[in-house]
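Review form for a predicted model. The reviewer records the input and the model, then writes brief findings.
Reviewer: anonymous (R2)
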Amino acid sequence: MTDHETADVLVVGSGIAGLTAALAAAREGREVTVATKATRPADAASWWAQGGIAVARGRPERFKRDVLAASDGTADPDAVDVLVENADDAVRDVLVDALGVEFDREAGGDAFDYGREAAHGEDRILHVGAATGEHVHVPLLNHLDGRDGVEVVDDAAALELIAREGRVHGAVVASDDGRFSVYAGATVLATGGIGDLFPRSTNPRGATGDGVAMAALAGADVTDMEFVQFHPTAYDAGPDEEGFLVSEAVRGEGALLRNGDGERFMPAYHDDAELAPRDVVSRAVAAEREATGEVRLDVGPLDFAGAFPGLAEKCADRGVDPAEGIPVAPAEHFLCGGVAVDDRGRASLDRLYAVGECARTGVHGANRLASTSLLEGLVWGLRAGADAAESGGTPANPERVAPPELLDRDPDLPPAFAREKFRRLRRVLGEHVGIERDPTELRRALGVLRRLKGEVDAYVRTRTSRSLYELRNATVTALLVTRQALANGESVGTHYVADDAEPAEPGPAADD
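Model under review:
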């Protein structure tokens, strides 16, 4: 492999948002390179999506009302219009017509079996059992694998954006074949979420905030980072167990939350009880766990094994009897903020785009409505990919500038170095930057994270490795979350401030 490659459009990440952007650019005749850390579909967050994908069903205004309500009135109405008005066409175009995804249908009929989840005012969620992401992501990846003009390079981590004078020219990528630059007419970040920053998360491993951090370090605007959504019903795994998400669709079918005393508690917290917005349910579950020792999801009111065989199998693998209730706890689930983009996915730097969870489109505001993440990735992926294809300059001949100098002057660090630093970072965010925030605790976290980033930066100056750069990205992203949480003294959506102290000055940006 040479020390550089070229592409009309470079996509960093291989979830539904990134793959859809690649598809849209390829449809315009562009040469597309997809560089992804994933080595198999399950390494991408889209693969893990259980609930489904919401559509408007020809009634976008109703859909918009629910998105705005779930966001506590903080979502950008114009961005929500883009989502709901393009929802039906985007799903039909890509998932139904191009990929032939077999969404569940009503028994004995051809009509789709639309589901409902928390904060939706009507049944509008297309699904494939409780494994929708898998059934969408794999066909999309296969479709692109067989398409001319698209190269998917897996197990390849982007380390730095190649940026000069407000314009992005590609990225430096590390793979098993070495380190090389990919020069591109347009670069689309689709790197997913930040789950690895927290002790408990529904994200796959490797969700270290890479796209957010790289964009911030290059000078792009990053906003709303305090709005980190926790899912209320992740399996309460033990120290040697692998956790899993218990889909919101289970509550949509009638499952109830009960505390350690066996009492159903959600009606006391919200009129919509188990189907209240996620931030409300997450805080309620956390409070009841602290007060009574545990919370279990009572699936007795439904045919759990029949409706959710995949989840029933996960329970059986862990020796959990659903008849006794599934032990659950909140877990970090989705970043509502990220790289600030417009209705075409364009970031504040020229030729840079962001889509999916690493992007802040404005759709989610302070809290995401259930089953809108796949849809947002699909809608913005199509729009960003098409726009990137148009703005990418001369096909296959992007401008090449000097890439950032990444040094290897010193010996590699032992593998335990990054692991120990990650443990420290997760402990800080879990204890001080979780479901409830206190300004004093946030200041304490900010001090620890600044020192941690200083340590990591000292090593990055003389060493280059994927694990070290992932750690750097995680510390940058953690600082952004903490600083923006500290600057926002108002409790809204996923950002819940424990007292009414005045917000602090945010201080310097990504290179703190």
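Findings: The longest strand covers residues 178-189.
Further findings: The longest helix spans residues 77-98.
Recommendation: see findings above.
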